[in-house]
Batch of 4 targets.
Target 1
Amino acid sequence: MIEKTLKEAIAYAKSHLGLKDEDAIYFQNFLLHEFGLKEPYQGEIDEKKIAAYSLPDPIVDSLTEDLVSSGMGPGESQRKATYVMGLLSPTPSQVDEKFASLDKESPEKATEYLYDLSIKNDYIAKSKVDKNIHWVAKYDHGDDLEISINLSKPEKNNKDIAKLLSKNVAVTYPKCLLCEENIGFEGTDSHPARENIRFVPLKLNGEDWFMQYSPYVYYSHHCIVFYKKHVPMKISGETLKAFGDFVDQFPHFFIGSNSDLPIVGGSILNHEHFQGGGHLLPLLISKDKETVYTSKKGSKVSILDFYVTSIKIMGSDKDDVLSLGTKVIDKWRHYSDPDNEIISDDSDGNHSTVTPFMRKIDGQYAVYLVLRNNRCSKAYPDGIFHAHPEYHHIKKEGIGLIEAAGLFILPARLKRESAEVEEAVSMDKKDYLAKYPDLVSFEGMIDEMKATHETSEAYINKVCQGILKNVAVYKDDEKGQEGLHKFIKETFHE
């Protein structure tokens, strides 16, 4: 019954969300009014059991079940449950004060507080995230990659993402999922409820930003840093300045940004934002292939020994590192190399940009710049430097910063399709297509697995490695490396 569940929610908030005893009746009466109840539950509840909950799921699940039983639709019942968790969470100002206080002790304590709160109030649906399938792909040749089949986020289409940059898109409130106005928003059928979101203010490059955690947390402490203004993403030297301020404040986190162009960018291009966190993605621990330039202040520029075309700049002088990184960004933006199919500008606009990252290593600043180009051709209508068509049955979405750095987020459908493929390997083509018609795009995978006797996981590992090689604007061959060295020479030596 809803009365009992609400009483349990109050008890949960006192144990896990910092609700004070003197505020309990106050919020209890708010909830009675919200749900049209005359009085609270008068029976006993197991407060010790509630205090031992590691996640809010028992409370949230009971709330949604009670509301569905009362005749409310599933979507609305979930939004109401979010309302309850948001109401019982610390207010935004209380979170800001607590975060700032802990930050004086250590940045780690502050970021851990916000992370724990985001789990405890169900903004991060931890139990759903934990169901994602994750493994490390190891190779005889090349760096290991991390691969996950994400069961909590829908697959997106590059063309739909590109439309978000159009000025014809209707203005709504909030304008997007990253706007400051999301805090406390009740949600709609097309916009998730955000009463339980909490973020903290930051000052980066002299401007106002906020930090929250991703509700999908692709890795440990996966945070999102978003600009106060709703403006399109733009990679420039100013991006690196903001990065520098961030890693000074949170030296235990890396920070990165999706590129600012469709195909090579992320799923939200219409609001300036970064992503970061406490997990070191494969790119960030890859080795240098060679040092190609050393500045007068001792900063070293190197080519990384990684699948995508990556330049690393590292040094103790922050301004020098940022200046060198800005040189790469500015040069690459309008640099063309037709011999390697790289055209920066044509009648369709600008095609070249970077996917940048930054972190601190033993007190030094390390900037990582992945060179990107989103040009398409008749042979590759979805992108020359994108996953090629032979890989689209596994991954067709844009390769954003997380995947470019070696952590693949694969669509949920692959859980089912991989199992079907494993079964199909022992069947005739006619039979498996009759049973699983959607495996028509997996015929090549099935044929290869029959020939090699490898598992679907091993096959997916090879595909992910192949996709990153597609993404590399300069291939790992003589022609490609000559082109890369020519670009570096023109950037730093002329």
Target 2
Amino acid sequence: MKKFVKIVKKRIPWISHIINETTSREFYIKRIKLSKKTICILCRMSRGLCGQSPCPLYHLFDKVSKVRSLVINKKHVIGSSPPGLFVGHSKYPYVNVGPLVAPIVGNVETWDTPEQWTNITFNQLINYRLSLIRGFRKAHVRNLRSKIVEKIQELALSRSSVSVDAKFTRPPRGKLIDGELRPLGPKAEIVDFFLDGIKTHQLLEKYFNDDEIRAEDALFELRKRGVLVSNLIRAFSAGLLGIKSQRKLVPTRWSITAVDSILSLRYIRELRTFDKISEIRVYEGNLLNNKFVVIMLPGIWSFEWLEAWWPRTAFNFLGTEIAICGDYELQFDRDSYAKVGGCYYASRLAVSEFLFKIKRQATVIVLREIYPTPENMIPLGVWLVREGVRLALKTRPFIFDDLKQAFAFLKDRLKLRIDDWISSSSLLNIITRQRRITEFLKK
């Protein structure tokens, strides 16, 4: 099979200025070898691995999904923001930044809060997301004193929906579907907008005013105090956190993975000192026809994420076989960006947060099966992974004495053959083939 090799920038340009060297190592991007079978799964419309621009999948999704965004025929919109904002990444450091506005007045907090989406239908979710209007204006990421950025920061500090009066240069059009981001509705350049009814989130305001604490420390403290990850992503993207001289706007695409990475690394650092679990645990859950299985094994912290895409699903749409991909880490910190991108860090955050809460460490393997259903014909963003794994970890685990019992159980719970999962897993191969030195001492 023909191989593709893609070499990209060694480092995302903002990362070393905001977080420490340990965390920034995760964002070094190495040479990637791909096959035609997995190129779309690893690219997810965001890395340009096939060299085609625009991504050919975008038009395919537009055609097959039969999803239409809201049609706005006016330049003046009075509505509400969840609150929400969007920072683009094209032509960085000059980026498009602006508010997300729902064309109705009222409480629309649910529209931009993934933590509240586990009990809504696919159609409800799509209606929420594709009704959000993206206003934008060009700004330099360092210029936090510009009029539009100051308003965006006010928006990001709000703890509830905000009334918005927005004027655009033209009626908003189009929609945004992307592998890492949540779907978004029509956009237009914004002339100006006015906010009313802001109720400031006191914890966010506290760390916004403290400009001597590092961004990663602020994120960790805020999360420990119960601030939602979606709120932290918004604050991080708006440049609210960190040492004053280092604050800047962060593209939404990057801020999602950065927050997942920063928080999970802090949890992992702590849980490495905890006792290991004493039995094999299996958790399972389902979210929007995505199956999530979390396997926890007694041992020191190690982690693997694997996903299987059926044909006629978003990133294996034209394939004829189930495509499996993933990545893993052993007890040491990663030194490169995960091949599967943001899904890896979203799942790792859900797992490490759970282990931190129960004061245990474990070797963890997370499996995801993506079935060919209407929900999986277009990408919905990495939030689906974070919330799907969290949902699985809220269930009562199935307990086993050995891996054979666990595999026998999973044989009937997963649609992909268990042998295919085992052969695709680096951690399972290490665990089943590696012999401990204590085994030789007993002889």
Target 3
Amino acid sequence: MLQKVENYILKNNLLTAGAKVIVGTSGGADSVALLHILKQLGFQCIVAHCNFHLRNEESDRDELFVQELATKLDLEYHKIDFDTVENATTNKISIEMAARNLRYNWFEELRAELNAEAIAVAHHADDNVETLLMNLTRGTGLRGMTGIPVRNGLVIRPLLCCSRNEIINYLNIIDYNYVTDSTNSQNDYVRNRFRNEIIPIFESINPAFRQTISDTIARFEEIEQIYNEHIALEINNLCKFENKKTKIDTSILKTKKYAKTILYELLSPCDFHNDTISKVLRGIDNTPGAIFYSPTHQLLYDRNQLILAKRAKAKTETYTIYNSDIEIIEPVQLKITHRKFDGKINKSSLYATFDATKLKFPLILRRWQQADSFVPFGMKTHKKVSDFFIDTKINRFEKENIWLIVSGGEIAWIMGYRTDNRFSVDKSTSEIIEFQLIN
């Protein structure tokens, strides 16, 4: 067992030799075995226990057991108490999800505080089988067929190579006790129903069902690698990545027999739902200018392309620029230079040069508003900003991400596009202020 787990750790590059690792320890058989194995393999184990206070006296029993286990193994011990029910109610999520979020957030805080290399949790091969079946029941793509990842960021799962029976046999051999969660025998949770009811039915048909599914997961993991490599090539052929935007060529996308799959791989990491992705694909030819939103991103139809980027912050948000500022980091990155005017002006759209005496500090950095107007450089009369956008053929998506510099209530610069003529340098200018927009 020790050799098997050590080989699995080496094969998947989970830990460096002797590394410090946070070990999530509930007191159940799986986590007790994980803790003992990692200690025997020479890793610096730190015991981390969460008391979710969901099982009354049983929760406190588990906490005491883990504390005594840490003492027995002479290991550093940390524990935390959570009001899991309150957290679930406040965030309008399930008890399971609340416990998961609380657990992993604390594990990461502890890992960072103690400078540990990783967080080890005790998922095993049987958990993987249950996860695959649950994913199939909900509906899944290829990724869901690979079960639980052996690594997710800094969270590692060294026991995925071991079955539950192997774990119990190991604990019997080393004569180690563990606690049993009484809710594991209850079928209130979906996972328990698979474990206690559904998988035994499959095993009555195929006694080696768990091993068969584990072997299938291994094959799907290899298939996924091939799939990901091909999808990456397709995305590279379809997309241009510039100015924090992804531009997707729809003329190429429409020629692909598996266009939805490619689009799904592009958009699902940006929180677009499968139904929305289907609507996007159906509307490519007949909904120009339409915008689709996810919680974090927006997607615009623009001629023969789709433009994907993060959603802009609220239009009401404003920032202040003071005369002493030489750089702005948020919400956009600006470099600000005060200097004598030598007759030279950078004409790039990423630069704006103003007569220093005409600007009234502090300046305001804000989004454009429907009633805004300005005097475009080279002109003498006002023009509505919305009309300027139409004339310049700025699409709806780009408009959402445009910022203005405002001086004394007047627009001095539509950033990246046009300055206001009233603030421009002239023959009498001796001092200038130059803004550079960093993309």
Target 4
Amino acid sequence: MKKLRYTAAVMCLSLLLGVIAPHALAAEAPELSSAKSALIGDMSSGRILYSAGAYTRSEPASITKMMTLLLAAEAAEAGEVSLDDMVTASKDCRFDLTDDSSTAHINAGETMSLKDLMYCAALVSANEACNIIAEHVSGSVEKFIGRMNSRAEELGCSGTHFMNTHGLPDKDQYTTARDLFVIACEAMRHPAFAEVVGTASCTVPATNIKDERRLSSSNALINKNSVYTDQYLYEGAVGIKTGHTDAAGYCLVGAVQRDGMNLITVVLGASGDDENRKYFDSFGDTVKLLDWCFENYSYRSVVEEGYAAAVQPVLIDGKRGELPLCCAEEINALVPNDLDVSALQKTVTLNEDTLSAVPGEGAELGSVSFADGDGNAYGTVKLVAAGEIKYEEPAEAGPESAGISDQQKIAIVLVCALFVLVVFTVGLALVRRNRAARAARSRKKAALRGGGKR
């Protein structure tokens, strides 16, 4: 009985390990303090590494300014405007602002460059700067807001809607952590955007109305002199934007580039110590997300250049064979530290099913993608011809058997069958003969025994 119980226990343990084995080394989720929505992802691939409430609608507060700055950067790249354009604030630039909203104190009639307006919007979250940018890029704030929503839709942000350029509360203005991640990934690819959101402090030159302005970023990840204290300065941080209203809570979209990683974080609806300013969970939870990622993920080689990933069928001069195909370049990706790269699944796409001519060395013949068992993609590379074609070995045959016709093959089969039949017939005759001989001997012996009795 003890042996049976031991066996049963071993079987149960084996089954349990079989169930949990693929995730046995998976990192535990980070413990956040108060964020209602949180997310960390890889900017390079767009892959989300951890999220909580990623699709929950939230008020974006001044995180809204990311879209405003993105559209300004894109308009400059498209040649619609120039970052050096000198822009004059209209008399209506403050039309939708409250008295206590964040500002760079830009007045109607004041002129500064478009790039300096972007610095005002990014560093000190100047709401009037956003309206001035909108009027310059699109001709009116209303048209610019329409452009904001169109761009969000183009990016696949199905949970986002904008009603203003700056983020002051509006019941019809909302977003999600996932959508902000998408916007941030796109925005950080534009140099002008990345420059302004990654600047800790700068000086805006004197204008026609005011002396120079000294701007200091509210982002404590990059600025030790931030209004949110110096305790959240983070190595490798390069942006992006803070936000806060009573309705939205404390919000932050962050960006960190370190150890080959390009990380984007989103924290929405967090708490903060307004009175004593000892903690702000928008930053605290962001730091927890970043620390968790650096502890459990690394940027490393997934596939080496020259890795033999597939073969290309060939049929040349009537001979079948296979041509080795190798990866044209190395794949580096952000992956879990416990990922077994040798177990990644391959998806091969060939340009042609079968080749009829020998391709040149290095000719591109397809592509291969690599993903893990959970469907996380780690990259796609070209497949190129590498090495010599390996032809199928012909069947060994003597000189007489070369070029045997179908009729000859049938004749050989019939001869073999006849031979088997003859062997079988002769064998059967021998068996019968032996049986008859044994029977005769038995009768003779019986007759002799009978004669002795008389």
